[in-house]
Structures are given as C-alpha cells and as structure tokens.
Design brief:
DUF499; six-stranded mixed sheet; ATPase AAA; alpha/beta; 4 domains
Length: 827
C-alpha cells in the first residue's frame, strides 16, 4: 500500500489518561442508570419518579455544563423575574423558543428553567449559568426577599386531548380538559382554575385580556414551560369543537398567550418547536395536522429570537462535564502537544485536517475524549432517528469510560477515550448497537460474534489480538474492528465505512508504531489466514466496512487454516479415486510396501503412488520407493523381501511435487466449504443467496480439484528391457484411460483388440530358447516376466497368436488328449 507509514511514535511521551482525569463516581462505578439518560420534564414537575440527577436541583446543576444556550436562557429568565419583582419592565421577549435537533438538549434546558424558577438557592454558583453578574446577584437577593416564581409545565406526550391533567397524584387537581385550564391550576391553584373554569369546560380559549387578568391575580412572575407541543396538537386535531377542533382552539389560546407576554415581565413562556416531530409519521397523519402545525409555527415565528440549547461546538464540553469530576489541564496540554507532533510528523498517514491548528483546538476542547468519537456519535449517528444526540452519546461514553477504568492495568499508555472503547462486550453498548442496526436495516450481530467479540474468545479480532498482546502491544485487532463497526453503521455521502487514514486517526496511539496498525488490518482483511474477518470487506480502493453478509472467500480461507488433520486428505483421496476411473488395469492406490502389490502373471497393476509418499521433481531419476516396489515382493508387511518375478505386470503413476501442492490446496477449500455447509445455523449464518453461492463454489472447487489431480498425476513409469521408462501423461478423460493410451502409444501393451502376432516376434520374445514345448500358462507368464515384452492386458490376443502359430508355423497344440497341428488347422 502506497501510504503505509513508518512512524514509530513520538519522543514527546504524553501522560496516561489515568494520571490527570477522574470520572464522576456514578460513572466510575457503572451506576449511571439507564433512566438517568431519559430526561423527563413532566416527571420532574409532576411526580416523584424522576432520577435524583434531574429532580434534585443542586445535583442537577452540579452535573450540568453551562452551554451558551443554557446561559442565554437562564439569563433571560432571571432578567424578567427580577424585572417583574421590581415592577420595572425590562423590554425583553416574553416567549422563548428552543430550537434543537432530536436529543439536542431542549428538555434539559427546560428542566434547568424549572429549577431556576423554583429553587434558585440550590444552584451551586449562579454566576456560572447567568451571564450578567448583576442579574445573578439581584435574582439571588430577590429570592431571599420572597420572590417565588409560579411555574406551569405542559408536556404534550404526558397528557391527552380528552384529559389535560398532568398530576393524578394531586387530590385537589380538577379534571382539566384544556391546556389553558391546566396551566391556570398549576400557576394559581383552584383559584386560578375557577377563573378559567368556564373556558376549560367549554373548551373555548380565553382572550388576551382575561389572561392578563389571570396573571395579575398574583404579585409573583409566572413561568410556563411547554414541551412536545406537536404531539399534543396531533391528538387535539381529532377533537371536534363545533366547526373547529381543539388543536385550532389551542393555537388561538397560544396567540392570546403570546400577546399577554408582551410589554410586561409578569409571564414568560418557554416552548420547544419540533420541526421534525412528524418526520416518521404516515402522510395521512401529517396532512391531518399540517395546517395546525403551520399555524403554531407562525405564532412562534413572531418571537424576535430563539435559543439553541447546545451548539455543536459545545457537545464535547457537555459530555466531559457530565462524565468527569476532574480533568487536569497540565495533562491535557501535554497530551495535545504530543498528538499534534504525532499528526504533523507523519502527515501522509492521517487526514489533512489532523495537522491543522483547528484540530489542536478540538483536541483541547474534547480532551480526554478524542474528537473522532464526538464526530461519530454526534454527527454520523445523529442522523439516525433511533439515536438521540447528546443523550445517546452520554450513555455510550459513560460505558466506555467505565470499561476503560475497569481495565486500566491493561491500558496504562492510553491518552484518550476512543471509539473502540464503545465495545460490544458491554451490555448497554450492545443493546444500543442492536437498535442502531435495526434503524439502518443491517444485521451485524453475526459479524460481532465471528469477527469482533465472542465470550469464548474465538472471534477473529481476538485471535489477532493474541499475536500482538504476547509481544506487549495493545489489542490491535479489537481496536480496529470495533472502530470499523461504528463507521459501518451510518451511510454517509461516500457510503458506509472508512479508509486507512481516518481509521488511523481514530485509533492510533503515539506509543505504537503506525506500521503495526496496518499489519494488523491487513491480517484482518485476509493476509492473516487465521485471523481474517468473515464479514469485513474493502480496501484496495474500497471503503473498509463490515457488512451483514460474510466475505465467502475469507470465510473459507479461515476455515482452511483450522481444518482438522486428514479432512482435506480424505477429500483429495476421494477426488483421486473419481479421477482415476475404471479400466483393464488393477489399480492399487498408495502402495508403500512390496506385499501390497501382488506378484501375479495373469493381471497387470497400475500403482498410483501416494501424494505424501512419492512426488516427482526430476522425472529422469526414478524414486527409490518405486524401485523397491518394482524389484521386490513379500508375503506380508515387514516380511522377507524376495525378487519380484512378474515385473512386467507393474506400472507406476506418480504426481508432480509442484502440482500436487495445488491439488492439496484445492482439496482444503473443498473440505472447508463442506465444513461450512455442514455447520450452517450453528457456527455460520448465511442467507439463502449466500448458501447458493457457497454451493456454486463447492461445485467449482470440485471441478478444479479434478483438474488439479489430473494435472499432478502425469509421471508414468513402466517396464522395458533397460529398466523403468518414463512418459508424461496428459488427461482429457480419466487418468486410467490416459495411462492405457500412453502405454499403447509407447508400444508397451497388447490391447484386447489386438490381432495375432507373428512367429518371429513370438520366438524372439516369448518362447524359451532351446525349449521343445511350453504350456500356455508358461507362455502367459512370460509376458509378466520379460521386461522386453509388451504387457498382456487380455488373453484374447495370445489365443489368436497361438492359433496362427499352429496354423502357419508348424506348432502343435495339446489340450489334454487332443492334438492340434497345422494340417488339422488347414483341413
């Protein structure tokens, strides 16, 4: 690969994350409960079920990072509260809109507003959250003098269009039917409700004048918090009120409420606009409420300004503040210096942005969380409807920090929280992953089990880890595969996955040679046969990513490496047997001792040498094993060797050493594919299409194996007067048939269909010199004994020859008491 780096780390050694960073106690103990990630304004205001981190004002503000949006909101509220208390109109807007994406902090900000109004003394340091110190002091003083803000909370998902009650545990609460009836009760109790009872029961909204009269009934200012309004309007659109609907009536009320907030500080409304509230609803539902939502938006658009609770560049600080009790500045500065030297020292190994001054700022702002983690969680995953931006990132990172600190003895040279710390071995992380997989219609569960993490430690990444850990390196296989998994979930503009440079940026440690990461990745991508990932795809110009379908080639390669001894051999033997076919020679496969080859006169033997016993590199040199079998016989294994009598009845076929290696490799693939097929649903999860492809690969591999065997078994040795001769055999049909054809071509056999031979040949080759007679048995045995004779494959040509000798050449044939001569043959 052209951009393979050679950097070996920096000389500016950064401090360990554990030296300067201290997680909050609930993070460190893993007690940051699931419900603490689901902020509910309704629970905080109307029940005792809210977690302490939200319900307890002091704890809430202690663990809340003061974003610019939150500071702007609370400063605005405190200003109006003080103005109302002093009866000195501030000229500020009385209705505030929180603009945010899903999971962007709007509910958190509304809870902060609720606590500021109800418990200002509980804020540890009000000046952290209120930008104007004078306003902070004035509000503190006013609260001490008796300023008590009235609060009403209306959460659209907490009520329904038929029953607007927010707190069923309140025995005095009336059965309110509308937003205005419920708000009047929450602000001013039964007295306030009675003032609007008729409007509530008839579901007719009060006008601005009546609302102003309501707010004037109490000297203290009022705060109205409205959340999830779109969900309420969706329900209210289905409730008919004369020629109108409850949704339209609610919008009329909101218009009057907006007017009532103008030119005074007595009442402030904070509401959230959910522009995407109906993004996932059916078209008919959208159509039902679209007009109502449009009217509602036009109301809120009359506000001069809006507030974004959490800006993009504040998310890292929000996460760090909630997760860490302490982050040492000295440790941060030293770490950032070291990593900027790291990134600038080998620019070609990282994205161009990694060496920029802006990236230094990002490292400082996000420390000890690496910016690539923030980007993945808040930019990439944020595009998924099932992932709530800040809340989802906080949940995952709390588990990452917990896991990292639990294993700090194995991570002493760690400097950042990394993407690979979001590991699927953690139950909460895994459950989040499963929801995300469902969102993108991709199932990576099999990939996790096979390639990233398995409880028994057999995943391919864990196998790769062992190669590095034994040499005191980090678990590079796990780091790489976990990071790639997170990059494989969301399909961005360039598709799913990542490339090497951003991948190094996401995981590389200054104390690890960059080349090690590339070596480990290459192994995972297929070069390391034992650790090649089944579901990991890409490289060579493609994005590196996990897919839900396995890479069959890597899967098979991996199984090949783990085959039991003898499994591939069995498939090779079966394929050899099939490739040999049938014929007139007696086939003996794999003879190793003389007694395995019968020393007989009436049958010729084709001895196919075992591919592990005899292979040919130099055909001119007959292997010693073949020489021994050719020259000797024995009665049993290990028995006394005696000279073989019928040498002419033995031919040998051996494989080329180079070519048999190819056949063995192909046999391994056949065995591996069969193994996968036999373990579907157990070890391997393949869909129907993949199973079909696997079957096609098996057929192809079997065909290749047949050709490999025929290509390998080409060395034929057969008897001649000068010893064993050699011919190369090429096979178009069966090996057996090709051997016969080659022997025939060499004039080394007498085929079954051959005509009678003449007397000269007979007397020179078969007849015993000086003999006056020979039995037909003795004649037949001569073919097996004499290496200068052809191999007799059938007695038929011999019978024809004897008949010709009797008829034409003066020979006589005795059969028991019968005599045959030339005269009789002619007569």
């Amino acid at each position: 690969m052209s951009d393979t780096p050679t950097t070996t780390g920096t000389t500016n050694r950064p401090p360990s994350i554990f030296e300067f960073c201290e997680p909050r106690q609930d993070v460190l103990t893993g007690e940051l409960a699931e419900d603490q990630f689901a902020a509910s304004l309704a629970d905080v205001a109307h029940s005792d079920d809210a977690p302490d981190v939200y319900a307890d004002p002091r704890l809430f503000f202690e663990k809340t990072y003061p974003t610019s949006g939150l500071q702007e909101l609370l400063t605005h509220l405190a200003t109006r509260f003080v103005g109302a208390h002093n009866d000195d109109y501030t000229g500020t807007n009385g209705i505030l809109r929180l603009d945010t994406s899903f999971g962007g902090g709007k509910t958190h900000n509304q809870i902060a507003a609720y606590h500021l109004a109800g418990s200002p003394s509980a804020v540890p340091d009000l000046s952290d959250f209120i930008l104007d110190q004078d306003i902070a002091d004035e509000y503190t003083d006013a609260a001490a003098l008796g300023l008590d803000v009235n609060s009403a909370v209306f959460v659209g998902t907490h009520v329904d269009a038929e029953d607007a009650r927010s707190n069923y545990d309140d025995p005095d609460a009336p059965a309110t039917k509308t937003m205005w009836g419920e708000m009047a009760y929450q602000l001013f109790g039964r007295e306030g409700y009675e003032f609007l009872r008729e409007n509530d029961e008839n579901r007719t909204p009060p006008g601005t004048t009546k609302l102003e009269q309501l707010f004037e009934r109490n000297d203290n200012p009022s705060l109205i918090l409205i959340d999830e309004i779109a969900a309420y309007l969706e329900q209210a659109a289905a409730v008919e009120i004369g020629d109108s609907t409850l949704a339209k009536q609610t919008n009329t009320f909101l218009m009057s409420l907006l007017s009532a907030t103008q030119n005074n500080d007595k009442v402030t409304v904070v509401l959230s606009i959910a522009d995407t509230a109906f993004a996932d609803q059916a078209e008919d539902v959208r159509g039902l409420v679209s007009e109502t939502i449009s009217e509602f938006n036009s109301i809120s658009d009359r506000v001069e300004g809006s507030i974004t609770p959490t800006e993009d560049n504040e998310i890292a600080a929000v996460l760090r503040h909630r997760l860490f009790e302490k982050v040492g500045g000295d440790g941060r500065d030293a770490t950032v210096d070291a990593y900027m030297s790291f990134y600038t020292g080998d620019r070609d190994s990282f994205p161009d942005s990694a060496a920029s001054p802006e990236h230094r700022n990002r490292l400082e702002d996000s420390y000890p969380i690496h910016p690539t983690v923030i980007d993945t969680l808040t930019e990439e995953l944020d595009s998924l409807p099932s992932f709530q931006r800040t809340r989802g990132a906080l949940k995952l990172l709390s588990r990452a920090v917990y896991r990292l600190w639990q294993h700090q003895n194995d991570n002493q040279e760690r400097h950042f929280v990394r993407l690979f710390d979001l590991h699927p071995s953690d139950g909460d992380v895994r459950s989040t992953l499963l929801r995300l997989f469902s969102s993108v219609d991709m199932d990576f569960e099999a990939a996790i089990k096979a390639d990233i993490y398995s409880e028994d430690g057999t995943a391919n990444a864990e196998e790769e880890d062992r190669n590095w850990v034994k040499n005191s390196h980090p678990s590079l296989g796990t780091q790489l595969t976990t990071a790639i998994l997170w990059k494989s979930i969301v399909k961005g503009a360039d598709g799913r996955g990542t490339t090497r440079r951003p991948l190094r940026h996401a995981i590389a440690n200054t104390e690890v040679e960059l080349a090690h990461y590339d070596d480990a990745l290459n192994n995972l991508l297929g070069e390391g046969r034992r650790s090649a990932c089944f579901y990991l795809h890409g490289d060579n110009g493609e994005k590196i990513q996990f897919k839900s379908e396995p890479n069959l080639t890597k899967l098979i390669d991996s199984v090949v490496e783990q085959l039991q001894d003898g499994l591939a051999r069995r498939h090779l033997e079966e394929a050899l047997d099939e490739a040999l076919g049938q014929g007139t020679l007696n086939v003996i496969v794999g003879p190793e001792e003389p007694h395995e080859i019968p020393d007989t006169a009436d049958e010729a033997h084709l001895c196919v040498m075992d591919f592990d016993t005899v292979t040919i590199t130099d055909y001119e040199t007959v292997p010693e094993a073949i020489q021994t079998l050719f020259k000797n016989t024995a009665s049993s294994s290990g028995g006394q060797k005696t000279p073989r009598v019928f040498k002419n009845n033995v031919v040998f076929l051996a494989a080329s050493e180079n070519d048999v290696a190819d056949a063995k490799r192909t046999a391994e693939r056949v065995a591996a594919i069969k193994h996968v097929q036999n373990n579907l649903g157990d070890q391997y999860e393949l869909n129907t299409e993949q199973q079909d492809k696997l079957g096609e690969r098996l057929d192809s591999a079997k065909g290749t194996l047949d050709q490999d065997i025929k290509k390998a078994y080409t060395h034929l040795y057969f008897p001649t007067a000068d010893g064993l001769a050699h011919r190369n055999v090429t096979t178009d049909s069966t090996i057996h048939q090709s051997v016969i054809e080659k022997l025939d071509e060499a004039g080394a056999i007498i085929p079954e269909g051959e005509d009678a031979y003449g007397v000269d040949w007979f007397e020179a080759t078969i007849w015993n010199v000086g003999a006056t007679s020979m039995t037909t048995r003795a004649v037949e045995e001569q073919f097996g004994k004499r290496q200068d004779a052809e191999i007799l494959l059938s007695p038929i040509p011999l019978r024809k020859t004897i008949a010709r000798l009797v008829r034409d050449s003066g020979y006589a044939y005795w059969d028991d008491c019968l005599l045959y001569t030339s005269l009789m043959a002619r007569g």
